[in-house]
Amino acid sequence: MRVALAQVSHETNTFSSELTDKAAFSLRSWVEGDDLLARHRGVRDYIGGMIDEAESIGGIELLPTFGAITSPSGYIRAETWNEIKAKVVESIGRLGPIDAIALELHGAGVAENADDIEGDLLRALRNAFGQDIPIVATLDLHGNTTERMIDNATMLFCVKEYPHIDMYERGQDAIRHLDLMMKGQLDPRMALVRLPMVMPTTTTFHGPLKAVNERCAAWEAKAGMVHCAAFHGFPYADTSAGCVSVLAIADGDEALAMAAARDVADLIWGMRQSLLIDLPGAEEGLDIALAHDAGPVIVNETSDNPGAGAPGDGTGLLAAMLKRDAPRTCFVHMADAEVVAAAHAAGEGSTITVALGGKADRLHGEPLPVEAKVVLNTRCRFVASSPMGKGGLRDLGLSTRLRIGNVDVVVTELKSQLLDDEMMKIHGMEMAGYKVIAIKSSQHFRAFFEPVAARIVTVDTPGIATFKFERFAYKTATKYLFPLCGL
To answer: How many domains does the chain have?
Structure first.
């Protein structure tokens, strides 16, 4: 079986001022041909799972075509989206006869000229290759899933956990069920229920959404069920596609799939109020962290989460930490290429006076005038050890470890979440040496840090990934959804 493989993934925060162009994709992944397989072989991610499952089954040839993925940010430029879509369609077309198409998608991609890029791409593939070609895809649980995606795909498999520790398994699911379908052993029927609500970025490791996954698992255990998953949606994509939804797949029984999707959707709707929580600000969060007996305490600034499209250079939490100047505290990490350049130019052991952070906009705080000692300069390049994407190469460009008073601050050229302690290690920082470790993330850090942290304190400062939806001026149909309609 010849299966065309492609990747297009972007989570678009439409409130971001950072427009996303080809250069932004090129910083992380704009690859063609065999490079697409090479980047994911042996990695616990979607395509890594597809590769391993295809090799385990045998008789499946994955034909890599094109891959484009970059960090969450603002709208994809129209010309960039047009080029990506054309490259996927054209590169698959050059393969000659194929039996199926397998895709890694996200579900919350928005371009200047397409408010549902996944649906747009799937429709383009249908138009190019016909209604009979099987198309399977993986999706992020923060996808704003649409009927257009359902209408143009054969099977869609959604990550169920947040943090996304099951990307690899969903890649396996896609290839395994595609193989069963091609052998005539599966007749997939999908059902989607979209709910009139949005929700904050909430973990599935515990709390209300753990119960949702348990309900999905109970449905999957029933005869004839293939897949059942809840899409949390992406509330920071202000489009008509945005909402919470539930997707189910059954073997030859659309009514069964719809029954599962409706049941899980009813469960989520019934718990909607419990998903709205009030988080402490920076000062209160630090009070809680510093008062805790043991360490390290992780203080995560969810509102400037690069994984939700925020710039990663916000100064709300860092300003509070520098004001406290408490011993054994650190911030890992800030994105500020200008400060990194200054530190490398000055050299290790020198003292520099710089304006740190606050470069992307003023919503996330003003730049902080600081005098800092340059402790260590390096390149922030490492292999991930987090259960989420373990084995993947991470490269955030040049970086520096600064000491500002008692606070160690890692600064990198590129933004990202802190998903494990590899970045700390290459900057000479051991977790055990710190009482408080401040980071920029919403939930993904939990995959690695929750088992080893003495406590986790989430803080919400001004930013485009805040849990305080009332701070946004929604303009689309999203503004009529719960809880926005009551604000």
So the answer is: 2
Is beta strand 29-32 parallel, antiparallel or unpaired with respect to 61-69? antiparallel
Q: Note whether residue 172 is domain-resident.
A: yes
Please report whether residue 234 resides in a domain.
yes
Q: Are 298 and 215 in a shared domain?
A: no
Looking at residue 239, what is its pLDDT? 95
Does 314 share its domain with 419? Answer: yes
Q: Are residues 254 and 286 in the same domain?
A: no
Asked whether residue 320 is domain-assigned, the answer is: yes
Same domain, 256 and 372: no
Give yes or no for a contact between 232 and 209, defined as CB atoms under 8 angstroms apart: yes
Instruction: Using alpha carbons, select from 159, 118, 161, 168 the residue that is nearest to residue 139.
Output: 159
My answer on whether 29 and 105 are in the same domain is yes
Residues 247 and 303 in one domain: no
Q: Are 153 and 249 contained in the same domain?
A: yes
Tally: H helices and E strands in the chain: 14, 17
Rounded-to-integer distance, Cα 293 and Cα 283, Å: 18
Q: Could you tell me the CA-to-CA distances from 105 to 91, 185, 199 in Å, in that order? A: 17, 26, 21
Residue 482 sits at the vertex; the CA angle it makes with 476 and 487, to the nearest 5 degrees, is 80
CA of 179: how far to CAs of 50, 59, 90, 315, in Å?
11, 10, 25, 50
Amino acid at residue number 378: T
Counting every residue, how long is the chain?
487
Instruction: Quickly list DSSP for 431-467.
Output: GGG-SEEEE--SSTTHHHHTTT-SEEEEE--SSTT-S
What is the span of the domain harbouring residue 288? 282-466
Q: What is the pLDDT of residues 209-266, one digit of tens each?
A: 999 999 999 999 999 999 999 999 999 999 999 999 999 999 999 999 999 999 999 9
C-alpha to C-alpha distance for 82 and 92, rounded to whole angstroms = 16
Tally Cβ neighbours within 10 Å of residue 157.
25
Cβ(94)–Cβ(33) below 8 Å = no
CA atoms within 13 A on the CB side of 17: 10
Task: Identify whether 477 is part of a domain.
Answer: no
Q: Give the Cα separation of 487 and 484 in Å (integer).
A: 5
For 227, the token pair is 């897949």
- Exposure of 467 in the CB half-sphere (CA atoms within 13 A): 18
pLDDT digits (tens, 9 = 90+) for 323-344: 999 999 999 999 999 999 999 9
**Unique residue bearing structure tokens 């689309």:** 476
* Alpha carbon separation from 189 to 151, 258, 270 (Å, rounded): 11, 9, 26
Cβ count within 10 A of residue 274: 11
Q: What is the pTM of this model?
A: 0.96
**Residues 183 and 1: beta-carbon distance below 8 Å:** no
